[in-house]
Amino acid sequence: MDTKTLLESFRDKEAILALGKEISHVARELEQPIYMMEVCGGHTHTLMRYALAQLLPENIECIHGPGCPVCIMPKHRINQAYDIAMQEDVILLTLGDMMRVPGSHGSLQDARAKGADVRFIYSPMQALEIARENPTKRVVYFAIGFETTTPMTAAMLQRAIDSGLQNLFIHSNHVLVPPPLRAILDSSDCKINALIAPSHVSVIAGAKIYTPIFERYHIPIVVSGFEPVDMMESILAIARQAKEKSPRLKIQYKRVVSMEGNTKAQELVEQFFTLREHFEWRGLGEIPESGLQLRDEYRAYDAECEFSAILSQEPIADNKACRCGDILRGVAKPLDCKVFGKSCTPEHPLGSCMVSSEGACAAYYKYGRKI
Fold this sequence. Notes:
Blueprint: H1 3-9, H2 13-27, E1 34-40, H3 41-49, E2 60-67, H4 75-85, E3 90-94, H5 108-113, E4 117-120, H6 126-133, E5 138-145, H7 150-162, E6 168-174, H8 178-186, E7 194-197, H9 199-205, H10 211-217, E8 221-223, H11 228-244, E9 249-251, H12 263-272, E10 273-275, E11 278-281, E12 285-288, E13 292-294, H13 303-306, H14 324-329, H15 360-367
Parallel strand pairs: 1-2, 1-7, 3-4, 3-5, 5-6, 7-8, 8-9
Antiparallel strand pairs: 10-13, 11-12
């Protein structure tokens, strides 16, 4: 079977509708509603793009989660990147979506408009070439992402060390999935009783990272692929577990996800990174041991050490009109926000959820459907 045919099978209309009917059939026997958080922004976009939530019965609700690395970035971390970029001898690099997220000083795109050398790159490995080409500049990679992207940053650092580069620095904003899920599930206003777990994260970290969450909260957790048939199969699995009152940790996305994950990638991350005491998440506040920083032996490559004299650590409140924080906690949806689609649009975002291609607000704006 070629790639196109394989992909079409995961988007087959009849299969999607059949799964929807089976979900509705199972849902009639549920004793209580399912409030199911799809953690990853990629899953939110699939739900919106294919109008999957419209196929679900009223007693199964989709709740959007904090699985967008751009969306969860707090303003003070963006301000740090902005302040570093404004230094005369600096080239600041980051991934494309991060350019437009507003901090209190402005976005990195604004910094570039003011003359800062800010560039977006497609892969951390591009930072190596830029550092070699600019030996008199301090090249700073503003690194973001969950367990999925951290190994690439670690691999970049390994190559920088091997090649003797001394002008490349990492501002680490790498974060972990389980800690914010625990914070959300422990909150007093949480009604979530099932999880669709991220798949790209699980390819690297393995589905084992959800075992402590399952053991603590005893709710259905399904690691799902991103295609519409994947998601409908995952929702059906959750509905059946709820009906049978037999929650499990299940891998739906078996074609790429295992329980153990990519152990070589995990070892590479372990070599260069260690847990932070705490990391601030937009909408969730400080969460203990939820972020990663470079180990002490690699302080020479740590931008937070190199630029410590100019970096503020003070938290900064979000725009009061923006409900990104509530959306990331799963207590509101984009259409609950008064500025959504009005003063907050992808062209002029007030909050991060409207910026990223994985953001819930961007999904609602693009596809114009209500979940």
